[in-house]
Amino acid sequence: MELQGSVAIITGAGSGIGRALAVAIATAGASVVVGDIDGEGAATTVRLIADAGGSALSVTTDVSSTDGVSTMVHAAHDFGPVDLFVANAGIMGAPGLGDDEADWDRVLDVNVRAHVRAAKILVPEWVRRGHGYFVTVASAAGLLTQLGAAGYSVTKHAAVGFSEWLAITYGDKGIGVSCVCPMGVDTPLLSGIVDSSDPTARLAAAAVTRAGQVMGPDQVAELTVEAIRSGTFLVLPHAEVLDMYRQKGSDYERWITGMRRYQSTLG
Length: 267
Description:
This is SDR family oxidoreductase. It contains 10 helices and 7 strands.
């Protein structure tokens, strides 16, 4: 996909990977809608883009609802039809199994259903136009697992699965899909569990920080922009994830035993 002159929406763009993606995509020549539940964070991202000579507007919205997703799409009309949607907004969810159904509803809504809702709005128009691009910012947890957080692990697996389905179903109709699966990235999401008072949340954080390099969000954004331009589906900022994924698939029993052992060292 050519980003110059395109219109893009990035969710969760008020900080972290989303902010880095918004700046990188705007720098590449796109007009960007910066969506986030944190209006002040979104406005800061827009100022960063403007300072770099780019074009952007902020939308304070909650992607956990259909109306929240629709609000961003309607706002983008100030620039023109949407060409690119980056489903980046994500939450860790409750530690362990969660305390109640509301925990699961929230993490499912933000980490999975927001992607589905955006696709339902945008994909039919993209098919009519013959082009469009959907980026899912998932996680290495979607290919492997996330210790200490069932909701996060399950929803990131689902996000990867939905991306695969989109790519298979619409890839011959002009729609590109990329799925980004990093391990540790220096974001508020990670720092939030590192500093948590909950021991299970801290275990989840340790599982990430000890597994490999904690990368800067700008590095993830750079690789994602390259993937959009080349039409690459799977984006692995941490190259070692591919080896881990292959080991998992080649001997599931051994992998699960190894993950139990790793979990015990963290505890």
